[in-house]
Amino acid sequence: MDLNEKIDMIGRLYLGLEQIEDCAEFSALIPEVRTNFVYASKEATTPEDVLAVDGRISVVDRFPKAIGRIKFGASGYMAHLLLEIRKKDPEIRSIIDFSNNPEIAEFLMAYCKEKGWNFSVVDRSFEPENLKDTEGEAISWTVEEAIRGAGGKMPRIFYETSAVGKEPVSIFVGKDPLEVAEQICELARTYHSSGQKTR
């Protein structure tokens, strides 16, 4: 990865993060494990090629707030998830995670239908027992299931049901962090205005 690509990536993720930090409505969608917002380089092969928010995004004074700075290699699970997604669709370079519960799930289904977006659910209860201890294999299975549930295409949004020791989260995917930030903030505002504001 050359210096120009690094500079461009840092600028784009920073501007995307600024949009999210200005979106109070997104606070209601930050899960207990907190949110991370990640961006892969064009030729990314390891988490070190993925830019992320060190310490994740939390809630401060009712607004989303990055706890640390953005840096390469700052994410584990989300970076691995993005790398797996890119094996199926290399155009996707940025993802963000957010809360899930039955109320949010119902909203997401209707929202994606209205937007004409692919959407799917990954039911962790079907995860093969032999994958539960191997994170890489489990992530690969998650991506395969998300695509299968969306009819063979990578969905714009998918969510995982809860599993032992794992909080259920939703994943929003996009080509660029500015696009992801803009669209996730629009989604959060729509969710807020629908009257479903509680965690």
What does this structure look like?
- The chain has 199 residues and is of the alpha+beta class.
- It has a single domain, classed as Class II aldolase/adducin N-terminal domain (L-fuculose-1-phosphate Aldolase, 3-Layer(aba) Sandwich), CATH 3.40.225.10.
- It has 5 helices and 9 strands; from the N terminus they run αβββββαβαβαββα.
- The chain has helices at residues 3-21, 77-88, 102-115, 135-149, 177-193; strands at 37-40, 50-53, 57-60, 63-66, 70-72, 94-99, 119-122, 157-160, 169-174.
- Strand 7, helix 4 (135-149) and strand 8 (157-160) form a beta-alpha-beta unit.
- The radius of gyration is 16 Å and the shape is globular.
- It starts with a helix and ends in a 6-residue tail after the last helix.
Quaternary: single chain
User: SSE string, helix = H, strand = E?
Assistant: HEEEEEHEHEHEEH
Largest sheet composition: 7 strands, mixed
Number of self-contained structural domains: 1
N/C terminus separation: 39 Å
Q: Considering the protein shown, what is the CATH homologous superfamily?
A: Class II aldolase/adducin N-terminal domain
CATH fold-level assignment = L-fuculose-1-phosphate Aldolase
Task: Give the CATH level 1 class.
Answer: Alpha Beta
Q: Say how many strands there are.
A: 9
Q: Strand order, main sheet: write it out.
A: 5-2-1-6-9-8-7
Low-confidence stretches: none
In round numbers, the mean pLDDT is: 91
Strand content: 15-25%
The CATH architecture can be named as 3-Layer(aba) Sandwich
Described by the principal axes of the CA atoms, the overall outline is globular
| Alpha-carbon Rg, integer | 16 Å
Classification by helices and strands: alpha+beta
- State the helicity in percent bands: 25-40%
- How large is the count of helical segments? 5
